[in-house]
Design brief:
The complex is a heterotetramer of chains A (316), B (340), C (157) and D (279).
Chain A: H1 5-17, E1 23-29, E2 36-41, E3 71-75, H2 77-88, E4 97-101, H3 110-117, E5 122-128, E6 131-136, E7 139-144, H4 151-154, E8 166-167, H5 182-189, H6 192-203, H7 211-214, H8 240-253, H9 263-267, H10 275-289
Parallel strand pairs in A: 1-3, 3-4, 4-8
Antiparallel strand pairs in A: 1-2, 5-6, 6-7
Chain C: H1 5-13, E1 26-31, H2 35-44, E2 53-58, H3 66-74, E3 79-84, H4 95-113, E4 120-124, H5 130-147
Parallel strand pairs in C: 1-2, 1-3, 3-4
Helix pairs in contact in C: 2-5
Chain D: E1 8-17, E2 24-31, H1 34-39, E3 47-52, E4 56-61, E5 72-77, H2 81-87, E6 94-101, H3 107-110, E7 114-120, H4 125-135, H5 137-140, E8 146-152, H6 161-168, E9 174-179, E10 189-190, H7 193-200, E11 207-212, H8 215-227, E12 235-238, E13 254-255, E14 258-259, E15 266-268, H9 269-274
Helix pairs in contact in D: 7-8
The chains are: A alpha/beta (316), B alpha+beta (340), C alpha/beta (157), D alpha/beta (279).
Amino acid sequence: MVGGEDKIREIAGRLLREGEVDLIIGYEKGTLPLRSTPSFIRDQNDLYKLIWDPTCDINLSKYLHGRDEKIGILAKGCDARSIVVCGSEGQIDMGKVVIIGLPCSGVIDRKKIEAEMEGREVLEATFADQSLVIRGEGFEEVLPIKGFMDDSCLSCRHRNPPVYDVLVGEPLPEITGANEYAEVDELESKSAEERWGYFVEEMGSCIRCYSCRNVCPMCYCKECFVDETMPAWFGKTNELTDTIIYHLVRAIHLTGRCVDCGACSRACPMDINLKALTKKAEKIARERFNFEVGLTTEEAPVLGVFKEDDSEEFII
Amino acid sequence: MNHKVIAKDGIREFIDGLIEEYRVFAPVEGKKILRLREISSGEEACLDFYNTKMSSKEALFPQNEVLFTYKKDREAIEKEATSPMKREQVLFGVRPCDAKGVTLTDVFFSSGEHRDQPYLEKRDRTAIVGLACNRPLNTCFCTSTGGSPFGKEGMDLLLVDLGERYLVEILTERGERLLGAAHGLRDATEEDMKLAQRLSNEADNAFSKELPTEGLSERLDGMFEDPIWDTIHQKCVGCGICTFVCPTCWCFDVVDEEKANGAIRIRLWDTCQLPLFTLQGSGFNPRPSGKERLRQRVMHKLNYFPKEFGSLACVGCGRCVRECPVNLDIREIIETIMSM
Amino acid sequence: MKVNAEEKGSKAKKGGNPDDGWEPKIIAFLCNWCSYAGADLAGISRLQYPPNIRVVRVPCSSRVSPYFIIKSLQQGWDGVLVSGCHPGDCHYISGNLVARRRFAVLKDMLDYMGIEPGRVSFSWVSAAEGERFSKVVAEVVEGVKALGPARRLVKVS
Amino acid sequence: MTNPYVPHIAVLRRIITENAMNDIKTFEVEFEDAEAARNFNYKPGQFGMVSYFGAGECPIGIASSPTDERSIEFTIKKVGVVTTALHNSMVGDKIGVRGPYGNGWPIEAMEGHNVLIVGAGFAFTTLRSLAKYILNEDNRGRFGDLTVLYGARNPGELIYKYDLNSWEKRDDIDLILTVDRGDESWTKRVGYVPTILEETSASSENAVAVICGPPIVIRLSMPILTKLGFTPEKTYLSLEMRMKCGIGKCGRCNVGDKFVCQDGPVFSQKELQEMPKEY
């Protein structure tokens, strides 16, 4: 995964030079260790900024909404799939998007690294093939990237973007045999009481900052249901049930649309495990409607259509 | 002599003493988040930390508070303002940047013809026990916004961690009263004071780079229509984190919620980064996109507020830098503005 | 979805359990063409069924959005029943088929989040099935009564 | 220190439907508590925060004139949650009112001058308050000629018809009414407010202009006013922003470093030229 940067700059440069795109959206080095930040490049001599390493965890497809210029976008497997979903929902004009596919071996989870550091501040972090060198005040540690990878990436089924216009480097072998629903299964095995306790405890610290909604490429409604006033369905304060309902309804809206890129959980300042809900939404799409999210723009969204033989075991 | 010293293992006892008389808030290590919470014993307080995830504004200007309730039976409507807090409260272990944030909030909420009584009433009954920063974070820049890791603004007592004892500086008469709950206090010796001064100098020099904020608000005066705003906001996804974690963001929304036989009027945090903040009934929105909204956040903190109240409405705590999901760094914005 | 003050008032005072005479309150969204007519038939045929449901007539089961159901649970209803036409009978051809997917996702999510499965139930009752309607209601009321008053997701403010 | 957010309870005494579309009504309210009534001394152009308990609160311009003894009127258009709740209420219902807030029309600057009032559509509420204030016999002498140009989409949408009729009979006010589209019963002018403003070309000599209306009317009328000689210092507008507190604390109604609820809503065109174009 590391080292593809010069290839990316070369492809991006060609697309810009040949006028195939007006804008390249990619990643550049962040102002903090372990952080990358979105980069919007229009002319050649900014291309040097483009980077590609395990800190590039933001789902850039969020920036495609509402733009009508030709855009070259760097997309990991999950990002590309969310572009496909947005394309199938008519939110992104696929004709105007050039997907620069990035075979991805997984992004890091900063919260896992912070936990490992036990309060010590990370001053610098560099990557050396399979490991991560962390430097701080009076300490230096070498961590295996695999041990601090985002959970979604550990069981990722699409390390290579299923849809792309140009691929950077060679495709990676796909992961097989990982149970991506391990956490969801484990929660499902618990009693309703325990599950309710788990979600009350997790959602209890939510401050309703809506970063999970605003970093998610699937959330593009002009007026979100929590902002509606006529009628005001649910409360706007961070009272417990209103907060749980906000996350519950957002998860319902993600069924058959969420590609489990993990951007929401990574963005949450209060470290709420949002993936426990979004992964369940994805699991429902797969198990109940046998729908694999984000592979082709032809398939209609799960909740937009119906089949005669849809399961109805829950109906009495 | 307003400098005392208390042994480190005496601090829990001091907090327990305070708890008898006051409601005490202190940094508490939640499941994964360090936040200012009300504690029922000194043990719960965590005093070895960089800074809390959310600022101490949580205890004075809670995310949602009921302004008043009203009951509605057939004819009469009686409304009853929320009763003021009975017991005084103490915010223990507040960092200098947060304490300065509190003073800026006080200035704003008591300015103008209409004072914000719900906040000010709580503030008058709140004592702040500060904890100096021996180790500022790489993202902290309080010295660039007129503050300092050993700053005293807004505090009643300032604790300085000297190793196995705390130097306690009494800053107000209320602070002195608080010390009544502490046992085993002794006057600070010359050596204590020298050590504290050394730690203070070390902390001041710990800042990797100084941000150029001299003349920042004057420079912003003519920059409302500057083209930098078109590019600076591009990566912002417009969520509310930067304003909710910020010690100097006090904008709020007011909503009514129905209850069994009446309703309550609630004040809750709001953010200028969301479109609903300025969306009008006619559908017109003076700040339709992220560009205007980011410009408002920067201009209010670094230009509008300083012009009226004389100091930046940013205390350099670095929370918005650390918590932004797309790493939009206000220090970078300040540097860009100053380099224009 | 205005629930009048007394209605909510009585729920707020509840807290009892099945044996001390506590009666669950269940909101039932009945589709106008089939289930509502089925309920009407049950009434005309003098069929007895528990009086715990409060009926809201909707044009079609697909008119019932997840917000109705979740808001009902939040306002303190002990149970929610949504009943529509059998697949193929829908006056609007595919209303119930679209609703079926929506309810499936909602039910899975509510169960996953820890709302007791018996709280929210869905059924197909046609206009001719007065008998079946009374049985469905009895079954739902029994299920909710066993669960006791709703506590989870109820907004107590 | 009293809680500035708690409104006083007021009873709806009279509700008048003002337009054919039945979405603009004038509510006359009377405070339940006499002391609150005494303290509610307002100027034309100020606004109050009107609450419907359970629905919320919104800023509404005070439509009555301070000279109407103790009757306080709010003209409200049915748009959102609170206004709809108010429109569904009846005489005798209780609502909440607090205020008055804002700076109001610059009465002092108008004294000894001719006054041109330009109003369009529903935004005529506080202008009517100003006109009634000037026309009051105790105040009329302090002002020069009064010209009122008021237009609406069609005759049914003209509000305060009862006031307009009485003003037409007076000789100390030059009332110019216009509608965008007339109907068979309409005998007066037909045309957009800016066009009629240009046609009637009121003299700007020793005169102050006051204008309030939808953004399109403002944008088209300002150049005409300037052409007629109304200098930016002598032209005043009332801005409309979203407001929640009305007392300069909730932070949302700012244009630049000015809070529209406290430093406004009335600004001179000169002030507006120096403020950022964010309104």
